[in-house]
Here is the input.
Amino acid sequence: MSATATEIKPLVQSSVSTHNFIKYRTVLIVLSEIVLIATSYYLSFLLRLDTVLSETQHDLFWKTLPLVIVLKLVVFYRLGLLRGWWRYVGMNDMAKIGMASFVSSTLIFLIIETIIHPHGYPRSVIPIDMFLCIMLVGGSRFMVRAYTERAHRYEWQKKTLIVGAGNAGAAIAKELRINSSLQYSPVGFVDDDPDKLGVQINGVKVLGNADALARLIEKHGVECVLIAIPSAKGPQIERIVDKCRQCKVSFTILPPISELFNRQASVTQARKLQIEDLLSRQVVRPDLDRIRTRIEGRTLLVTGAGGSIGSELVRQVASFNPHKLILLERSENDLFRIARELSGTFPSLDFVPVVGDVLDVKLLKDVFALHRPNSVFHAAAYKHVPMMESNCFQAVTNNVFGTYNVALVAKQYGAENFVMISSDKAVKPTNMMGVTKRLAEMIILGLHHQSRTRFMAVRFGNVLGSNGSVIPIFEEQIRKGGPVTVTHRDVTRYFMTIPEAVQLVLQASVMGKGGEIFVLDMGEPVKVVDLARRMIRLSGYEPDRDIKIAFTGLRPGEKLFEELRLDAEGSKPTLHEKIWMLEGTRVDFEDVRKWLEHLSALVEGRNVHGLISKLVSIVPEYSPSAELKSLAEVDQHDLALAYRWERKHLNSSVEGAA
Here is the structure.
């Protein structure tokens, strides 16, 4: 016989024996329960009489034993104790065993007292038997579980230290103890709480604190460290990671609370460390009940549904069981991706993907007329600062007129609330992206005073990992071996994870009464060069030695630092500690109409100089960039003539083709 066949034969035999065990499992459970019930009953006689049983007492035992076995098996069956796998037994099963023993013992006592009346029967045998039965039946199950957990620890499993003995760590330990198919074998906890030292949690002992991590790794032959502290901040995570690197052991981490989003921690969520874990581990605790009240059973529309913020809005909103979810996105590929994801994650969700543009007013009216959304989340916008400096007309068209279109149609069709995603770049803007976002804020403030729809904006800074943001760019540069390009040594930005930002957007949306601008607490600003260095180290390299950092100078329209509110905007706290409310500027809707008319003419005429002047008059704190000013110096007359000539000949071509 070949070596391969020799190896396969025991596996086949094992498979056959496992199949036979599963086939006869119920019979084996019943037989084992009969043995345990009989043993418990006999021991209760011995304990009660404290001596060897006489012939009369033996007769009483044998005469009543069938009654005891039958009644207990019937009650056990009714409570589901003759089914299931003993290896997965837990406290819920013990409660059922206790209930079954109590009920069956009560029935036995009533039948013996009222029907059988055996002479000389010691009544106290019944309560003794009840407690013994709980101990034997429950104890046997836990012994099987303990044996299974120990017997199924395979060589391929990694000896693992769990950092964090809180709720998340306890859930992970329980899962690892029960599920032997997972690759981790827990050897202990590490936790900085001195009261937990030496305590066993779900069968896993707390061995020491984070300072003892290196010693514990060496002592127990640890191969992997699992960091299970979803609420930990960046410096704490970085300290643990540095110790793991020094000891040359692998490590994984649970995502922050904002990504868990009210789900129980599971080892399947453990992933590689990401830069977000070192920068933004802020604890966000949204009021889930209030959010659910505003979303569950209602129809919602998300514009820009395929983008970074829009797609995460869709994911989180979908978890609150809306009646219908409308996804408006002009990128067919992005819309396909999020629609496919929703189909897999929320198979019962009623969602409608709509390929379309916020500039298409006819499409917007059709969507609102057909679906009548209660709430609108407007995330569609152009966001890349340098690109919008050289495409200023498109920035105004999309960010200003697009916002106005969606907001006005929402008002006309009686949407209850409208939430616009804004940016910190709208504060004292120095670029076209920022000033168009500020103007969009002012438009919805003007609309609020003319409508029952509650219009509000939520303003926040950079989101980590969004499309085209600094994180993916740095990752690509590191993969290519550098250099990593940073615009300026002193440039700082506010950062927040996408899930965290979206949770706070949802929270702000249920707070708003209309006419507010909400600002998210972004924590402390981060130096972009420090971010680059951390990412290089995270990839296993040393900055300035293995991977160079090059400074390229600020790009068109960029600032060294961003602000979250204007000096004139008075801020006040809300019920949520991470959300502040600004007293938005009072805007008259008639002014909005005039602004849009003038801007439309300037965009139509491709008048850069006039566009800048008009934007400055509307948003006095706007400081146009030097690059945009130089663009305005182009001969506007020649540019307008060229544009009109092109449009005329294009129309002629179209008419001829028709």
Remarks:
- The mean pLDDT is 81.
- Residues 125-151 form the longest helix (27 residues).
